[in-house]
Each structure stands twice: as C-alpha cells, then as structure tokens.
Amino acid sequence: MKNTDLVAVQPVESLVVPSALDGREGSNRGVAGSSQLAADNDLDALRAWLSNYADTQTTFDNYRKEAERLLLWAVVQLGKPLSSLTHEDLLLYKVFLADPQPAGRWVSLRDDGTRGGKYPRGDERWRPFNGPLAPASQRQALIILNAMFTWLVNAGYLRGNPMALLRQRAKRSAPRVTRYLSGSLWDEVKVWVEQLPQETEAGRKYYARCRWLTTLFYLQGMRISEVAGGKMGDFFRRLGADGQDQWWLETAGKGGKARIVPASPELMAELWRYRTANGLPALPTRAEEIPLILPFKGAARCLSRSAVHDAIKGIFGGVAAWLRGKGTEFADRADELDRASAHWLRHTAGSHQADGGVDLRTIRDNLGHVSLNTTSLYLHAEDDARHRETATRHRMNWRNRGPA
C-alpha cells in the first residue's frame, strides 16, 4: 500500500496519520488484550515511550528525533504503519539514514539552496534531516530505535522487535577521546578571536561574545545545554578556608543533576569583561535572570541549544577560513576545525586539564561525570582544594588585548 502523498512530512506534534497507516491493524501488533498501554495507534505509543524522558530535555529531543524520522519514513516512504515494519524494511532504513532521498522531501535547505538549514518545528521549511548522517550518528540512531522497539515489546504493544535481527558489530573497548582540539590548534582559535576587529559597536559585541563563549566552554567544560540554559545568577561566591572569596558556577547536567564548578579568577575577569562590554554591572547578583550568553537583539532571554551550537560553529568556521588563507599547509588543521562542535570544547577542556596534571577526580567533578552525593555537601576542604587546583592549573591565558 505505497502512497507517498498520503502524509506530509511534518513534526509529530502536528502529524495526522490516516487510519490505514496509523498502526491499529499493524502486522506486528501484540496479542489483543496484552498491551499495558492505553495507546491503540503507533503515534500514541511513541508518545507514551517518549513520556519517560520528559524530564531530560536533551535526551527527549534526541529520542523524539529518531522515533519521528522512522515513523515518517514508514508512512511516507513505504506507505505502511510503523507497527508493520519488518527486518527487511529496517535494512532499507539503514541505507536511507546514510543519504535521505528524495532530499527535497527529507532534508532542510538554507535560503541559498544548500543543505543544513535549521528552522523551528512549526516552520513549513522544517525537515527531519539537515543532511546525510555520519556513521557515528547512524549507529546512535539505531541504538535509540532498538531501545524504543524493546520497550514497545515489553509493554505488549508489539509482538517482536525487528531491530533485534540486524547484525550487530562486536563490542569494542571504549576508544580514547579523539574529538578535541590539540593545544596548538586551540592556540589558533584564541589567536583568531583576539584579532577580531572592534572598530564598530557590532564588531566589539561579536568579539566580546566569541571571547566569552570560548572561555566559558573551555574553562568550565560545560555541555551545550548547560551553557544555553545557564543564567548569570548561577554564579555565587562563598568564603574559602583561607578567608578569601571563591566564585563558583552552579549548573544542572544530565537528568537535572546539579553540580558546582570552580569559577577561577581568570574566568571572573572574563565575565567582568563580557558584562561591561554589554552595559551590565561588572559582577552578577544571585537573583539575576540574565542568560550566560546574551542575544545580540531582542529580550535578554536564553539562547536555544541550536543557536549556541551555531555560534560555536561560526567561530570554528572563521578560524578554518583564516587558516586556509595562510596557505595549503594549514588545510588539514582547517578541516579539523570544520568538523569540531561545541562538545569538542568540553572534551578539549577535560583533555587539557588531564595533560596539565589536574587530578582526575577533580576533572570528574568539574565535568559532572559522576553525580554529587549527599556527603559532598560537607566536604568543604575538598572543594577548597579543587578550587585552588582548577584555578591554578587550568587557564585560558589570553594575551589581554584591550578594546580597540
């Protein structure tokens, strides 16, 4: 029953699936009366699965994206319900992920016609893909979908998991982190930022943002969601054991788990620079709702994760273009920066701290790889040592070029 005109490609929250494709009669549906879900169609079953992740926005968005892509592909491309997909269908889907075709239906475009345009989910130009998925993204998509099918089987909604029949590669030991910038390449980023023009107000604001963004990601090792959702009021100070003020930044990581990250004197000097460049008092107050990254226009509200991602990619793209202008011998370094993203800065922060001799337990706590337990609330001496070590050994070392 293939009819690619039955359903328009649109986000699941506004999607209307014809009854013939909604899964009520799916060939892989569970035994009548055995489902533990109130859902009687595929779309509602997916929503029930996604509701388990509603408290973790990043995970929810990633899981919704993969479920949405598969559902749309099933009903639009194959003309069959998701609950009728077979092993052979999913083999075709693996190929589709590597190059979604026809691109006009599946891939969003910029105004100039090139791939990669990003639009709000309610925009008619929105599409499920921004281009072909990299191998790592393809694997991640299949992992998420396998978890989804397993849950639907366990809930009694489906009889079997067609993903379970796909050939799985042998598990390998966790590889060393490779998505980070070497010390020399990181220096190139800083040099590029430092030479940005500041002759105009717009130039000064762009320079201030680039400098603050790279500083914040690098010194604090934060996730993009933490930076995007962070407020100036998340900075606070307390008295250390030596009687001196210590500044800290409170943030909520995966699953809403809170942690505090040392805010070194260098970071606070950069915060002062960024705030004064934007007409704010030098230091924040605990009650401030001003975002960590200020928008260039409009109300002072938090940027979306995609906007922060684009800002970092813009910096890396600028550095890459600058390096290519220096000669062909810099092409490989430029290509590396073109691949880099905001998460590379988190890996770069961790790698450079380790290389600089920072204790691994300090890095673990700074990056939030292990959640804080109740007893850590009383370990003020340990926190003091972590603050001193982070501030001393992990530095940005700008050349302190003043405003033009």
TrEMBL record:
Keyword DNA-binding: yes
Chief place where the protein resides: cytoplasm
Superkingdom classification of source: Bacteria
Residues annotated as domain Tyr recombinase: 176-392
Ranges for domain Core-binding (CB): 40-153
Pfam families reported for this sequence: Phage_integrase
PANTHER family reported for this sequence: PHAGE INTEGRASE-RELATED, TYROSINE RECOMBINASE XERC
Protein's UniProt name: Tyrosine-type recombinase/integrase
